[in-house]
Specification:
- The protein is mainly α.
- Among the domains are: about 60 residues, lambda repressor-like DNA-binding domains (434 Repressor (Amino-terminal Domain)); about 150 residues, Tetratricopeptide repeat domain (Serine Threonine Protein Phosphatase 5, Tetratricopeptide repeat, Alpha Horseshoe), CATH 1.25.40.10.
- About 65% of the residues lie in helices and about 0% in strands.
- α10 packs antiparallel against α11.
- The longest helix has about 30 residues.
- The N and C termini lie far apart (about 90 Å).
Amino acid sequence: MKETMGQIIRRLRKEKNLTQDEMAEQLNISAQAISKWENDSSMPDISQVVPLANFFGVSTDLLFDVQSLDRDEEVKRIIEEASAPQRLSYDTEEEEFQVSVKEYETYVEALKLHPNSIPLLYAALSSGCNLARDYAERGDSHQALKIRKESIRIGNIILHTCNDTATLLDTHRWMVWIFCDMKEYENAEEHAGKMSKDYDNQGSMKAWIKLASGDIDGEIKQRCNNISGMIFAIHFEIVRLGNAYCKKGQYEDAIRVYKTLYDLIPVIYGDEEFTPPLHTLDIGDHIALCYVKLGQNEEAVKWLSKTVDHLSKNAKHYNKQDRVETPILRECEYRFFGNSMRVKDHVDFDRAEFKPLDKYPMFKELVKKVNK
């Protein structure tokens, strides 16, 4: 038996696992209207035909016997044409503002035809967030609030329908900014908490929230922790890169990479005695091993000596000092593993590769010093 229009709409809605309320939210219409369609007590207006077809991802020929366009190509064209003027230069701020207004209005109008297009929804979200700020700066708080509320609605649709991790991450970022602009900091924190837990995502957004709310002390602490995370990530990648060069036998390249860490220490920590216990700072034995592979044994011994000195200084502060004085990291609290730090746990003098160093008095002294 041939399906009625209402039966088709109901079947397609259930295939998308949507309630009538959820579908209504995404189409920006009432749930009551959808109920009437599905009960065949009324039909969609002709202007709603193409949006419905696009929403369900079917051709209008199949659904309503109306010729449809290739949606992806059409959306791509709309975004390209709408955003192109933003890349031009203008003589006045008013001209730039009107370009932004037109871009946003283009996206809003296009969403009437393509209500569940993620690229179009995202374009409208980012454009709306920036335009709302422009209106706020011009003193038009009413229009700014109107656009922000619509942007929140659009953002929620993306978060409930999109599967692309990068788009979801950026959407949460825009939502943080919007709610901060609206001084709704609890909502902003909620979105920040759903971002990946690293300095560039959750950390940077939490710092932004502290700034927006006027909590400057909180902002300083968060940014110090963000920087600490960046330093750790940089150190980790440098060590892994050096290790990769070692595996290829490119020992000179590995040495240059490893030494970069020692160049960073004075830049970040200045002349402080204590540097946080990052596992990537005890890589002098890596450098020494590379020198042994190159037949430069005296250089290997020098770097082992330098490593022991560095670790010995840190061992004096281990579990006794949990902060550094530099304002870049002053608000960070460092977590220590264990109650003490032993240099010999970080430098393995017994490894077979170091056997050629036994004939050097300095090497023997280092072994005695560490094994005390």
